[in-house]
Structure to design on (146 residues):
């Protein structure tokens, strides 16, 4: 791997970490308040998903073609799932407006770990596909997944 690719990974991972951690208040801040407790798996999925998102976008912006493919839509969906898996259900006003806080606490809160796990697996698969595509685009000198 070259230094530029590693810099892209670090940059996009830090950006993803901030985008996921500040609005979800997994990392306490003065802007957002979390109304449900933060569990141990929230921290794990926050870090792992941030690194996977960083890898995905590093491969996207380091590639030679940078063309939009079917992976982009799937990537956005996986990132939204990652956000929902980490976020406090009653803190997302749009979901509270549609479903109500009782529904969210009773049905969404217990399955948040599974949503996070699904987002992690989906992101890992997308990163694998993107790195494979990145390798096939002619970036052999970087030799990422072999």
């Amino acid at each position: 791997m070259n230094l530029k690719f590693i810099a892209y990974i670090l940059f996009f991972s830090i950006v993803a970490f901030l985008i996921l951690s500040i609005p979800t208040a997994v990392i306490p801040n003065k802007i957002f308040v979390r109304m449900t407790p933060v569990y141990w798996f929230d921290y794990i999925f926050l870090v792992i998903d941030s690194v996977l998102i960083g890898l995905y976008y590093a491969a996207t912006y380091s590639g030679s073609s940078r063309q939009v493919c079917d992976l982009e839509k799937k990537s956005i969906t996986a990132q939204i799932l990652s956000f929902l898996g980490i976020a406090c259900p009653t803190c997302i006003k749009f979901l509270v407006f549609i479903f109500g806080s009782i529904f969210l606490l009773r049905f969404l809160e217990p399955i948040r770990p599974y949503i996070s796990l699904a987002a992690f697996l989906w992101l890992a698969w997308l990163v694998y596909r993107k790195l494979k595509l990145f390798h096939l685009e002619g970036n052999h000198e970087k030799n990422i997944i072999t």
